[in-house]
Amino acid sequence: MSEDTGDDELAELSERARKLLTGRVEFLLSAPQLKFLPDPVVPEIAFAGRSNVGKSSLLNALTGRKSLARASVTPGRTQELNFFEVGEPLALRLVDMPGYGFAKAPIKVVERWKMLVRDFLRGRQVLKRTLVLIDSRHGVKDVDRDMMKLLDEAAVGYRLVLTKADKIKASELAAVHAATEAEARKRTAAFPQVHVTSSEKGMGVAELRAAVLADAES
Ligand SMILES: Nc1nc2c(ncn2[C@@H]2O[C@H](COP(=O)(O)OP(=O)(O)O)[C@@H](O)[C@H]2O)c(=O)[nH]1
Ligand SMILES: [Mg+2]
């Protein structure tokens, strides 16, 4: 009985999440500095990850779009927080954070990135969750650990999300999944459960939509 209720609730959440995230989604603004942030009027979910991790592709898959988030041409060029509005009436915002870990970035650019992101994470009351994307082929790298450290220190809860799961064999995927969950369990603000996704194949996308909505409503 109670299990049936749980399944029903999950099905209801998933359906609401699909309708919401594939419904009205519009680019709002890019904030190169905190003074350009929109008023904090609805829950926000942020997306972080190394350049080329598949962040734009995942945002497109979650929202059922082809080109909501521009696929970045020059890695590391985008140094802004990009806000997208979801829902009619407005229900939540997605925040595309600038990619990190690009090899050729000057120290000044990296420092500017870190200040912007750290100040955003620390000060944003409406930020409900951050999704930290990890490329399935590479697993967690030191630059990802730096990001997790920023989140742990800011006490912003986050989910680790493996991307491009279609690119590796099932056995390799199982291993990287287990290793990534082991990393997650070591962190104070991370969810112990790691999401596995492929924007290309649509794998894990419905589950992640439901998680995003649950987080926004938490
Ligand atoms: N096979 C595969 N390729 C992907 C997937 N997600 C992204 N990519 C590719 O990875 C590259 C970087 O993706 P993009 O979304 O622009 O990454 P971003 O820099 O993090 O925004 C592009 O060539 C995408 O087509 C996926 O799930 N499967
Ligand atoms: Mg991108």
Automatic annotation (TrEMBL):
Chain segments annotated as transmembrane: none
Domain of life of the source: Bacteria
InterPro entries: G_ENGB_dom, GTP-bd, GTP-bd_ribosome_bio_YsxC, P-loop_NTPase, Small_GTP-bd
Signal sequence region: none
Ranges of residues in domain EngB-type G: 41-218
SUPFAM superfamilies xref list: P-loop containing nucleoside triphosphate hydrolases
Cofactor(s) this protein cannot do without: Mg(2+)
Listed GO MF terms: GTP binding; metal ion binding
Cited PANTHER family: ENGB-TYPE G DOMAIN-CONTAINING PROTEIN, MSS1/TRME-RELATED GTP-BINDING PROTEIN
Purpose of the protein: Necessary for normal cell division and for the maintenance of normal septation.
Family statement drawn from the similarity comment of this UniProt entry: Belongs to the TRAFAC class TrmE-Era-EngA-EngB-Septin-like GTPase superfamily. EngB GTPase family.
Protein name: Probable GTP-binding protein EngB
Organism in which the protein naturally occurs: Tsuneonella aeria
